[in-house]
Write a structure and sequence with these properties.
With 99 residues, this protein is α+β, with helices and mostly antiparallel strands. The protein has a single domain (15-97), classed as Glutaredoxin (3-Layer(aba) Sandwich), CATH 3.40.30.10. It contains 4 helices and 4 strands. It has a 4-stranded mixed sheet, sandwiched between helices. A hairpin with a 2-residue loop joins strand 3 and strand 4 (76-79). The protein is elongated, with a radius of gyration of 16 Å. The relative contact order is 0.20. It binds glutathione. Glutathione is lined by residues 23, 26-28, 67-69, 80-82. Glutathione binds at residues 23, 26-28, 67-69, 80-82.
Length: 99
């Protein structure tokens, strides 16, 4: 393996921005966070019960979807845990988190 100044520069992959609107007691939120944690993916969490303004923000960004979690990757609406799990099963989640 090449080392030192002649070593090829390793590409540092960018980490996606993941936002989750959640409630503390919500099992779907817990499953979504666990999946992301297992992948080593960081996320920002907004508890919509602690901050009602965030609930209104979630409704607006998720175009009326009112269940939690609502998950966004780089600002793009993913949906809830079911949609996140489907993306994971298809391999598309890794692409979204890594690209
Ligand atoms: N299919 C959804 C189910 C989400 C869901 O049912 N969330 C519950 C909490 S775990 C919810 O928002 N219930 C309505 C409420 O709390 O007002 C998903 O996969 O995220």
């Amino acid at each position: 393996m090449a080392t030192g100044v002649d070593a090829p520069i390793k590409r540092i992959s960018r980490m996606a921005t993941v936002e989750i609107y959640s409630k503390s007691w919500c099992p779907y939120c817990r499953m979504a966070k666990r999946l992301l944690e297992e992948k080593g993916q960081e996320f920002v969490e907004f508890d919509v019960e602690l901050d009602p303004g965030k609930y209104d923000e979630m409704l607006e960004r998720s175009r009326g979807r009112w269940t939690v979690p609502e998950i966004f990757i780089d600002g793009e609406l993913i949906g809830g845990f079911d949609e996140l799990r489907a993306l994971e099963a298809s391999g598309r989640l890794d692409e979204m988190l890594e690209s």
